[in-house]
Amino acid sequence: MWFTRISLKNPVFATMVMLAIVVLGLFSYQRLKVDQFPNIDFPVVVVTAEYPGASPEIVESEVTKKIEEGVNSIAGIDILASRSYEGQAVVIIQFQLQIDGRKAADDVREKVASIRPTFRTEVKDGQVYVDLSAPAATAS
Questions:
Q1: What is the rounded distance in angstroms from the CA atom of residue 48 to the CA atom of residue 90?
Q2: pLDDT in tens, 32-47
Q3: Cβ–Cβ contacts within 10 Å for residue 61, how many?
């Protein structure tokens, strides 16, 4: 109530206070740093394995499923997507943002190495690629 009483008795004073608040707000707004597109690195690990001469169905059952089951137990996985091509399996693993990409890649390498003996002898060693600047993988 006291502000209303002062504003009615001194309208110029009230106008100057309001103008000062508006100027302060405009000045603060100009100095406000807002990043609409922050630099976020999505920790993405890609595992590829080759099975020369195999059809996509055989690659999926013999290689892709085994890799998926092996890496599925790693903590922090956000998206796990895979593709099986003729003679090649590709498994894309996207981790949550708070997970360190290097540590996640090491975990994936360990899991792939542990399931390597279950592959047939024709399957070449799986390669693990780390891409910390990749966009989000989409599962389809």
A1: 5
A2: 887 777 777 788 999 9
A3: 13
